[in-house]
Amino acid sequence: MRRKSREIKKPNTSGISIKWKLLFYLALFTAFVLFVVWLFQVVLLNRFYESTKLDELNEAAVELAGVVSNTEKLKDMAEEVLSDAMIVSRVYRLGHDGYAYRIMSQDWVGNYYLKTAKSEELEQLFNKARKSSDGAYYFRKTVNESTDAPPRPRGEAERKEMVYVQMVSSENDIYIIMLNMMYTPLDSTVNTLNLQFLWIAIILLSGAVILSGIISNRISTPIVKMNESARKLATGSYDADFEGEGYRETCELADTLNYASAELSKVDTLQKELIANVSHDLRTPLTMITGYSEVMRDIPGENTPENVQVIIDESTRLTGLVNDILDISKIQSGTVGFEKNIFNLTETVRSAMTRYGKLIEHDGYTIAFHADTDVSVCADRNRILQVIYNLINNAVNYAGEDKTVEVRQTTENGVVRIAVRDNGEGIAPEDIDKIWDRYYKVDRVHKRAVVGSGLGLSIVKGVLEAHNAAYGIESTPGEGSTFWFELNLASEGNAIFSDNPAKK
Ligand code: ADP
Predict the structure, then answer these.
(1) Residue 394: CB within 6 Å of ligand 1?
(2) What is the pLDDT of residues 249-262, one digit of tens each?
(3) Which residues fall within 8 angstroms of residue 10, CB to CB, at 6 or more apart?
(4) Is residue 439 over pLDDT 80?
(5) What is the three-class DSSP state of 333?
(6) 348 CA distance to ligand 1 middle (Å)
(7) Of all protein residues, whose CA lies closest to atom 2 belonging to ligand 1?
(8) Residues 46, 35: Cα–Cα separation, whole Å
């Protein structure tokens, strides 16, 4: 694992905290709600009220218009619809002589405009209604209170009246309906609402402040805690525990961070083990090389080919170890390129076995290769060779007393499978998934003769995955293991290609 030894930066405090953001948006929302309420309840209240009054007059006029040609019915209707709202009414029929004849009137106590208006004023109203497109005309005015009317209480608005004129034609006659109602504007209500409104604004805004405080506290507490744990993690304390505290998103984040910290801790442990193992592995051949060289230099007659061979063997072991480390870091960082070509896989395995066999036969090992037929694949030959060597090497290392290694090639459905089997100690089921990890070694007791760097299988995994090849292990503890991988057979149509980025 590469960890940059940078210092943890001081917390960045320039961003706006959740609390203030939340407060801002809640205050904005509250202000908007208050504005809407104020607009409707305060500013437009009187207008709405007046328009409902106008609607009432309008509806009454429509009712009367329906029966305007029948005076009896008209009177009944007037009784029915006009008495509730105390609407004063006049209905005229326009005679052919140009005069308007009153056919119905209804009055209530009070200084209604229609009751006091002169005939010229009524005529003016009629003319205005006639000129308008819908034959209707209305106006509002303050009521002329009679001098003997009781004085208005302080703060109460002046009463107003609304006069409505509608021209109607029925059975070749033209009628004029005039209606007049009084009402008290809602000014005092508006004043009360205005006062209330101030209190509502204060209460709602304080509510927004308290609510944003509570919510932001609830949301930010787990984040703050997770931040503290993350800072611990950054300094290398992998036991840092992340808790999401009840929110799905923060819980998911906590789970991810817990997973990351577990993975980091695993890699860290493995890395420490590797350093211990590798340094041990490096020290032993180096000691041997130095020791043998000193003996050859100081003691006459010790300069024998056997001693030189020991130095060569130990140097080779060193090279192998260093190469493994380089390979795995290149494969995992993605800097290694795979050069795919069609080659004879069977022949490649066979020659590798022959070479390997020669190396170990004097130690009493038997290695056998069985192939159904000669097959070709399209892959990176050198890397596949490395896979085969690593698997055989492991099989030899872990073959135990049996000392038999068998490599079998089978072909089926255009896929070739290479299986390397040994009859050694096998692998415990709980270790099977882990042995592909870098630096993982089942046998924690460091035995130089048997145990390698712990990198062999992760190189195998890296190479096979780069080839999209299937691979796996079948192993029974005490009976041995079979490591296998599969490659697609090269067909004639298979292109020879290279995905080495350096060569593009
Ligand atoms: P090493 O260099 O330690 O062999 P590898 O990555 O090749 O590293 O293997 C990882 C671990 O998997 C080994 O330490 C060993 O415990 C286990 N292992 C690999 N091959 C075999 C095998 N054929 N039989 C039993 N155990 C094996």
Answers:
(1) yes
(2) 888 999 999 998 88
(3) none
(4) no
(5) helix
(6) 23
(7) 452
(8) 17
